[in-house]
Amino acid sequence: MKHSSFFWFVLPSTLLMLAFIAFPIVSVVSQSFYSAHEQVVVQVKNCGPFGCTMETSVDQEATAAIREAEPLGKFAGLDIYTDRNHLAFGEVAAAWVNSDGLPDFGRSLMNLPFYKALGFTLTYTAIVTPLTILLGFFVAIAVNSVAKALKGPTIFFSLLPMIVTPLVGSLILFWMVDARGILGTGLQWLTDDPNLSVKASTGLMWIMLMVYGVWHAAPFAFVVFYAGLQTVNTDTLESAMVDGATRWERIRFVVVPHLLPLVTFVALIQLMDNFRVFEPIVSFQASAHATSLSYAIYNDLGGETRLLSSAAATSVLTIIGIAILLSPVLVRTWRDFDRK
Amino acid sequence: MARLQLKNVNKRWGSFIGVDNFNLDIADEEFLVLLGPSGCGKSTTMRMIAGLEDVTDGEIILGDRVVNDLEPKDRDISMVFQSYGLYPNLTVYENIRFPLRVRKVPKEKHDEMVMKAIHMTELEDFMHRRPAELSGGQRQRVALGRAIVRKPTVFLMDEPLSNLDAKLRVSTRAQIKNLQSKLKTTTVYVTHDQIEAMTLADRVVVMNAGKIQQVGTPTDIYDMPANTFVASFIGSPAMNLVEGALEGGTFTGEGIRVEGLPTGPSGNVTLGFRAEDAEIVDTGGQISAPMYSIELLGEASMITWRLGGALVSIKTNKEYRAEIGDVVQASIPASICHLFDTASGERIAL
């Protein structure tokens, strides 16, 4: 293809990418270096029948004028990144000095909002991603081996968790784990503890969120792997049967290597999705026990104070986190491409 | 002992009959070729022997065991597939070693057995490559190596040369023949290529529509075809078949008259003869008709007539020249002729 033809061919998509991806990122990054202007406060003498007093009030006009003159806010450099709500360098350093060993340091770290959110986000991503891939793979293998007549209904039921709206799905589970729900009561019966409450326990709440995450995302992995299974070379499978391979060995030596590129794809998508975990925390009303980076951004933007710059800084840190998480897979894909 | 017997074997899918009452006794160390057009049931028969397809009725006996209900891995067979069936993520060495690995053959024996198979299939230079880095012929040799490495009692080969180009097919064919004669292992080979069948087989089974048409040595099949299907399927070009009437030892058809045939049978028959057995003559030929076409084959020329509804061809020397439409005569002596019943297609014993 000629360079000029290529240029015109990619121009529309490049423009769209610039407008809808690059520009918002640049906007968020620049916003993260500015903090909101402080309100202009003036001392006003207020005289009444009982005498005069000096009162402090906000000079709305002066404040509006400053905000209009510098709509991004006051340049703060990296201050927002290093404040207590984000990387909290000062607090981390203090915790390091004052802590009694690593576990204590970890506990102190988890009291800082950013690290608390990051801790849950990373744990969620690290546990849900592989479990989703494994569950999706085994469901695909199972569905692929059921009788033809049953395949349609089985596929439909396997896809249900993905079809159900995340909010509704998580609300259903939320009610089920309630002390009066079937799962909550079941757990109380199993542990012989009538006071056991999933919602009151941080550990159980984390487990519940992750169980929901796997349940909700596994159908995506299942669909991708099921499609991949339809392209497994039948001759290779049959020659493995004749060679003496058991069912498990056929999966291990024929099916899994065939599906590996798809595992990379599903892993990439799931890493990105899980790192942005948000809906379950809202639906489970779990913010007291677990917050994620996305939840922190939502909290900053949705609160009364609308901490735009704080949300921007968390967003930038989230983007950096996703980039770090994906880098091994991307590097591997690039190497494979380069080898070809 | 690897005698393989198929007794009254049938394969049906609903009302469709894939293999119909198949009976065959394959001797130990025999090279048997199942030959027939696509859809004739030859691959289905092989897959039933392998255990990849269930038998509807009948028995498959390997040695002295009925193997109908055994898993493929328990039948002590190995199989070579048309599309090789290699493991793309394993090297040539690991592909050939695979059966030993999954059958839990002691590890200390692996290297010796694999290297022997690699040596026999001449793959020494490629043993560390993956299948994607090999040519079609090399891949099929890897499949052969994997088949021979654990010395099974029966080799099954399902059109192993079909994916190769013509030149490679000839050399790989020779290699398979050589390997089988060295290993002396009972072999069942499926093909639709009659040249492969003729060159490789101790015996050929010609199949059509799920039924055995004829079983015999390649010479038997070629010289004494059991019916018009076998006659028209074996040989290149296929046997000429002309319909006509036989009366008092004389066959008369459109544009052809052959005398001196047996006087016993009479009525509507089909006369068959091979293109290479007849010859062009100037006068007194049994065929005398305008030439339909002339084709130069390289080592010979092919002269064709249209006699009634059939095209009849004979081979002559490559220098022969005539124009299309010229009346050309050919000698068809009674001694080269075969007679078939026109209604049933079966051979009439002379």
Major beta sheet of chain B, specifics? 6 strands, mixed
Task: Please report the total strand number of chain A as a whole number.
Answer: 4
The strand count of chain B comes to: 20
Uncertain stretches of 5 or more adjacent residues of chain A: none
Q: What is the radius of gyration of chain B computed over CA atoms, rounded to a whole number of angstroms?
A: 24 Å
CATH topology of the domain at 130-294 in chain A: MetI-like fold
Number of helices of chain A: 15
Q: What is the residue-averaged pLDDT of chain A?
A: 89
CATH level-3 fold name of the largest domain in chain B: Rossmann fold
- Residue stretches of chain B low in confidence (pLDDT < 50, at least 5 long) are none
Mean pLDDT of chain B, as a whole number?
Answer: 92
**Main sheet record of chain A:** 2 strands, antiparallel
**Secondary-structure element sequence of chain A?**
HEEEHEHHHHHHHHHHHHH
Helix content of chain A: over 70%
- Tally of individual domains of chain B: 2
Q: Structural class, from helix and strand content of chain A?
A: mainly alpha
In quaternary terms, these chains amount to heterodimer
Shape of chain B: elongated
